[in-house]
Amino acid sequence: MKFRQLLFLAFVVVFTSCKQKEKVHHYIRFNNTGELYGFLKWTPENRFPLISAHRGGPMPGFPENCIETFENATTFNPVIIEFDIAYSKDSVMVIMHDDQLERTSTGKGNIGSYTYEELKAFNLKDYAGKETSFKIPTLDSVLSWSKGKVLLTIDLKKGVSYAKVIEKVRQYKVESNSIIITYTADQAREVHQLAPDLMISASVQKKAELKRLNGLGIPDSRIVAFVGVSAPEKELYQFLHSKGITTILGTIGNIDKSAITSPAKNVYYHLVNNGADILSGDNLPQASEELNKFRYNKKLSSEHIN
Asked: What is the pTM of this model?
């Protein structure tokens, strides 16, 4: 069985067992960038592990990269929302992962072949291909919605301008709940030069990669370290934590699959216990249960979480 089908079935089970429960939203709020810096500066006393909902936490009836899905994700846990930005034909920044529209919407062809007004005619589809009434959102609408609710990790598709995205972050005054995703040291340098006050998600899978980032002028205090999609040695976590750096582990793929097939192993609980601070993946319901248990057992809390 393909992983996405397995994941979909797991979500169906969770939805069936929980649909009678009243939904409560769990929001994250920072009043200024200083509060965000303090929250992300790693210390044993300050630690509060979080889930980053990959593409916003899609599940049955809730398509990826959709504001309604982002809002639904907050009913499971206080979350970081990871989402993707692409351009429409008329250069409107819209939220979409694929270049092609078929998989996630009722549209056909390349997203860049349509103006935003034309894109509004299409509905989004969930992972099972079921059409919903939800529309392709703009970056403006996501940033406007996010304030006082979630942290954002903002992923740019090829060709999207960091400068234009940062301009929007400034316009909506969401510097205090935004993290810009970069994949190379040069991209991280570009973002830091454009906006030295913004937090950056940068790949640090070896100690030398942090040294290179520092050499390019990016201080530890602006870095959230992405350590890969397989759990690193504990030594890397300890090294980054000694620098006050919060870590992100991608659970997308094999780790999420392992957690679904062997729930008794409490995979996510052990990952954060081993040093991961943010788990970025697709299995939001199960990860939420295990992180709730971890934070309860360790007596972890934050004034920024309602």
From this structure: 0.92
